[in-house]
Amino acid sequence: MSSVFTKIINGELPARFVYRDDKAVAFLSIEPLRYGHTLVVPVAEVDKWTDLDPDTWAHLNQVALKVGQAVKNAFGSSRAGYIIAGFDVPHTHIHLFPADKMEEYDFGQAYAADATDDGAMDEAATRIRQHLDTGKDGFPGAK
User: Fold this and answer.
1) Which fold has domain 4-132?
2) I want to staple 12 with a disulfide (CB 3.0 to 4.6 A). Which of 7, 57, 70, 71 is the partner?
3) Which of 59, 93, 95, 131 is catalytic?
4) Which residues are catalytic (predicted)?
């Protein structure tokens, strides 16, 4: 059975893409720690990051570096948080989010009441895409 991320990648479920290529995608988390919280996911459905082939692992981190810089710049944060947890969806994914202090790395924190406001989520995706020069589909150069 396909993971929820495979369904998103295949267009069966909606997502706010900010980056896409033939090996990796990046889209906003539906349960953000902060606006701009983005997931970098391999197209190949592999549960544990430790099971990825070295080329895919390297590519995911290249994408995470690019997207992380865009997240940091788009939200004016001092850092881009980077976490691999791997417990919520059985498909490797890297969490990236704007961060200014260690307390913001807490996945146990309650989400803000407006953390998934559609307008604010759309704006967050647009801000990140502007720094990546990608379109709504996540592909580079597409407007």
Assistant:
1) HIT family, subunit A (3.30.428)
2) 7
3) 93
4) 93 (tele-amp-histidine intermediate)
